[in-house]
Amino acid sequence: MAPLSVNAYARAQAVSSSQAELVVMLYRGTIRFATKARMQMASRDVQGSHRSLLRAQEIVIELMIGFRPGTEQITQDLFALHNYIYQQLYQANIEKQIASIDEAIRHLRELLGAWESIALPSGPPKPAVARPSLDRHC
Q1: By the 8 A CB rule, do 49 and 119 touch?
Q2: Number of independent structural domains in the chain
């Protein structure tokens, strides 16, 4: 598949997704870039790991922007957790520490699991359009 059609597919998927599904896609992207950075760092690809960690950090910042400041404790806790994840990715990038990437990925996977259970509930698939019954006795 050409890069142009991949980008078009990604844009179409983003436009047609709910907000919760978009959050899931952001977490998946962050995990993908952090995992890629971990592999690059292990293979001593300093520039590649730097670029991948920057992308992961940018996505975490986008997630943090979604937490509106308020007095609710859950919002404050989620913001603090995402800030911690960001700091782990930043630390990994500065000090070239795989352990910091692993710590960030662990938390990101837990958050992804929670969001997937919200955005992608299990159960029988619901038909988008009612199917007409076919009369086979005609």
Answers
A1: no
A2: 1
pTM comes to: 0.77
Amino acid at 75: T
Query: How far is the C-alpha of 120 from the C-alpha of 69, rounded, in Å?
Result: 27
* Displacement of CA 10 from its chain's centroid (Å): 14
Assess if residue 81 is contained within a domain. yes
- Looking at residue 138, its pLDDT comes to 45
Take residue 5 and report the two structure tokens written for it: 């059609």
Query: Tens digits of per-residue pLDDT, 18-68?
Result: 888 899 999 999 999 999 999 999 999 999 999 999 999 999 999 999 877
Q: Is residue 82 part of a domain?
A: yes
> Half-sphere exposure of 102 toward its Cβ, with a 13 Å CA cutoff?
5
Closest-CA residue to 50 (of 95, 83, 85): 95
Q: Among 93, 94, 109, 83, which residue's Cα sits nearest to residue 38?
A: 93
137, part of any domain:
no
- Six-digit token pair at 45? 């690809």
Model confidence at 100: pLDDT above 50: yes
Read off the CATH number of the domain in which 54 is found. 1.20.120.340
Amino acid at 115: W
